[in-house]
Structure to design on (341 residues):
């Protein structure tokens, strides 16, 4: 079975497993796991920040960021289809008493003009605008990438208004490879950065929240509050260190493989890429009634040996990753084209 449901379905490579079993470990809640400490220092330095915190998931990393920047009755500004808003179970409200104010972007992307007039007045009737969150690459936007200039404009606006900036960088590695813009350049335009090791980089578990030392010290307390304190987590951190050494540059292969799938979608009447341009490893497309529902199309592809994510009545996503080869993507493309028969 060719599994294109997500880049989270990958399994550790033999080299990664060897690194995990050889890891030196300690109790990370006591700050004594040397491999976790190494990962945190290295990840922070990579993005040009002082400190980082290893956490189990990207959702936890994002929610800790909301908590360190905001208090109850505060507000986050973010794009309407952001992961924090759509796919984190209302965590900002449930865990931190924080409101999300959504802004409609273009394929998930915002520019500075979208923020005009969006700061709430200093009034007891209003929430307080405290945080801007940007997702790069943007999942629901189709793996779209912000330009550094667009982010810099939003960063300048936020600083002028005393508002913090957070990057949901679950797939920032894909943006780094696709644009050639280094991690430190992206990191320098945000107060905090969340990165994921278990998507494009292929680890079994793990994300990190990156930022100034004082904020990460607070974040460590919230990680404990949210149930994210781990003990001998060095086995997991070792996988992340291995991925940093071996799995970043190869993301270009995933991007090339996504183009194979996108070309197949374009060839099938009744399937429409959304967006039409595929920039990284995510291929989103809509299914017209002439082909049935998205679930029916997904079932036909499954019968042909291809798994895709059905994410709406007429919406499907296919994701390339470490565990699918070019040859497998060509076979998947053939299965997609066969939908027209």
């Amino acid at each position: 079975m060719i599994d294109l449901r997500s880049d989270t379905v990958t399994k550790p490579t033999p080299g990664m497993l060897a690194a995990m079993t050889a890891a030196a470990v300690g109790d990370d809640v006591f700050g004594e796991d040397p491999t976790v400490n190494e990962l945190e220092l290295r990840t922070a330095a990579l993005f040009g920040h002082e400190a980082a915190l290893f956490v189990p998931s990207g959702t936890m990393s994002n929610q800790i960021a909301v908590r360190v920047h905001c208090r109850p009755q505060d507000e986050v500004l973010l794009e309407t289809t952001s992961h924090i808003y759509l796919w984190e179970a209302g965590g900002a409200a449930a865990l931190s008493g924080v409101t999300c104010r959504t802004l409609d972007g273009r394929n998930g992307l915002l520019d500075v003009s979208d923020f005009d007039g969006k700061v709430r007045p200093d009034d007891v009737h209003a929430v307080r605008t405290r945080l801007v969150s940007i997702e790069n690459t943007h999942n629901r936007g189709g793996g779209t990438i912000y330009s550094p200039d667009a982010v810099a404009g939003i960063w300048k606006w936020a600083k002028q208004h005393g508002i913090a900036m957070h990057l949901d960088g679950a797939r920032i590695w894909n943006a780094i490879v696709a644009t050639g813009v280094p991690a430190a350049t992206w990191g320098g335009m945000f107060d905090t950065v969340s990165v994921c090791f278990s998507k494009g980089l292929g680890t079994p578990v793990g994300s990190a929240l990156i930022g100034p030392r004082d904020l990460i010290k607070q974040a460590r307390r919230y990680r404990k509050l949210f149930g994210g304190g781990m003990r001998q987590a060095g086995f997991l951190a070792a996988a992340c260190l291995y991925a940093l050494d071996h799995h970043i540059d190869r993301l270009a292969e995933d991007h090339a493989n996504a183009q194979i799938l996108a070309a197949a979608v374009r060839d099938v009447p009744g399937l429409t890429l959304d967006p039409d341009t595929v920039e990284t490893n995510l291929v989103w497309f809509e299914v017209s009634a002439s082909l049935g529902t998205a679930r029916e199309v997904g079932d036909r592809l499954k019968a042909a040996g291809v798994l895709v994510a059905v994410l709406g009545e007429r919406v499907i996503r296919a994701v390339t990753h470490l565990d699918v080869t070019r040859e497998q993507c060509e076979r998947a493309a053939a299965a997609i084209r066969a939908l027209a028969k």
In short: The two ends are 21 Å apart (CA to CA). Residues 75 and 129 are 5 Å apart (CA to CA).
